[in-house]
Write a structure and sequence with these properties.
single chain; 2 domains; 37% strand; 5-stranded mixed beta barrel; 451 residues; alpha+beta
């Protein structure tokens, strides 16, 4: 069962390395084996105040091999893809396997879960970007931001990045497949000053295809406007109030959800959503769908890290959890089947179903009436076992649906399970710059700790 990349030197090198590794594992007596070979290359440039700060070229390659002798497992990796190095690393993996304890859940995925067809997902858009061109783009971005307002007095820099990754996975079932994917970005972080007060903010764009990026000038202008908007920020007294998470902040709320329903968290019994399958976790209007095959999607993939087919499915329907996020090992530990999520989730779409058109951000601010609009979060105060949530935040205080003043140096706190159940609305201002796609999220009430 072979699914090839477009023929080129890199793809051929990776396929040869995978085939060599699997053949050597069989010769050394492994009952099962899998190999994952990859080549990555990229360019990153950062400019600050018009001067080049960093230029980074990256090119790396690697091969990871896992072998099984019955239920004993061994793994090893190398950055050398020559036949001699591949044979050597397989021998080391086999030696390790002979000394490990048996694990009844170890082994390749079930053959029926393997991807039979590899859809073309439009993920590969190499950008022939020279360092000089990237420097020019970064300078344009930063200059546009600095020109927004006389109060923009300093910069943390503008960056341009371009990455391309090619990977091939194969196992002893005869499966071998691979694909290439690109990721490009432009970002800018600026500092606004008024008197002795200074405030920083940023903006960025990211896409598979460089033609889908926002212009450098648009990113700089947005970063500059955001930085200026934060001038005059105040602290708040401690209170309880509704909180509206901007889309790029809301994504984090659902990342915690995915972590809680992932296989390892479930079988280790280290999740605030332990054994929640079939339970209502969100309000009835909330729907979450996994869509792995969105063309150009930043979370799209034709198969997962074990070669399992990725499939459309509903994780949450009418607020009820319908499925976990599983690879083959965690699935066996739970007595379930893999969901094609070895390596993570693929394009999670968060939506409010059954409503007459989702609300805009302005409509959500009006619905909130009085509360905190969060545009930046800091710190890592989230407990995945208990669901306790406490993070530094900044944003804007809202009265009667209108922004009154910027806010900084506050902490928002609650419990994720309660926060999920207390979601009031989800906006239509969806952020597509990541694996999780969500609009703004309005939570009915949280503790806001300030002065």
């Amino acid at each position: 069962m072979q699914h090839g990349l477009e023929p080129n030197a890199s793809a051929n090198t990776l396929q040869d390395a995978v085939r060599c590794a699997l053949a050597q594992a069989a010769r050394l007596g492994a009952s099962q084996a899998e190999a994952d070979a990859s080549i990555g290359q990229g360019l990153g440039v950062t400019v600050r105040l018009g001067e080049v700060e960093t230029i980074e070229y990256q090119r790396d390659r690697g091969l990871a091999v896992t072998v099984y002798f019955g239920k004993r497992k061994g793994a090893a990796s190398t950055a050398d893809l020559s036949p001699e190095a591949v044979c050597s690393i397989v021998a080391k993996a086999c030696a390790i396997a002979r000394f490990t304890a048996e694990d009844p859940y170890a082994g390749l995925i079930e053959p029926e879960a393997l991807a039979r067809e590899i859809p073309e997902l439009d993920l590969d858009y190499p950008w022939a970007l020279a360092a000089e061109e990237a420097i020019g783009i970064a300078r344009r971005c930063e200059r546009a931001g600095m020109d927004v307002d006389a109060r923009i007095t300093n910069s943390e820099g503008a960056s341009v990045g371009s990455q391309r990754h090619t990977g091939v996975y194969g196992n002893s079932y005869g499966f071998i497949a691979g694909f290439s994917a690109t990721s490009h970005s432009i970002s800018c972080s600026l500092i606004a000053q008024h008197g002795n007060e200074m405030q920083r903010d940023y903006w960025y764009t990211s896409a598979r295809d460089a033609l889908d990026l926002q212009t450098p000038e648009a990113i700089g202008v947005q970063a500059g406007r955001r930085a200026c908007a934060r001038l005059g920020a105040r602290k708040l007294s401690t209170r309880r109030a509704p909180v509206l998470f901007a889309p790029e902040m809301a994504r984090g709320l659902f990342q915690h959800f995915i972590g809680a329903i992932s296989g390892p968290s479930q079988y280790r019994k280290a999740s605030f959503l332990l054994d929640s399958l079939g339970q209502r976790v969100f309000p009835q209007f909330v729907r979450m769908s996994e869509r792995p095959h969105i063309p150009k999607g930043l979370g799209s993939a034709p198969f997962d890290a074990e070669g399992a087919a990725t499939l459309d499915r509903e994780l949450v329907e009418q607020g009820v959890l319908r499925g976990y996020v599983l690879g083959s090992y965690s699935a066996r530990r739970l007595g379930l089947k893999t969901t094609g999520n070895a390596g993570g989730i693929h394009n999670l779409l968060v939506a409010a179903e059954g409503t007459e058109g989702a609300d805009s951000r302005e409509a959500l601010l009006r619905q909130m009436g009085r509360g905190l609009w969060v545009t930046e979060l800091m710190g890592q105060g989230v407990n995945g076992v208990t669901g306790d949530y406490s993070r530094g935040a900044s944003g804007f205080w809202v009265e009667d649906g209108a922004i009154v003043h910027p806010v900084h140096e506050v902490t928002i706190a609650g419990n994720l399970r309660e926060m999920y159940g207390n979601i009031v609305a989800i906006g239509n201002d969806v952020d597509v710059r990541g694996t999780i796609r969500s609009g703004s999220v309005l939570v009915g009430e949280m503790t806001i700790a300030g002065e």
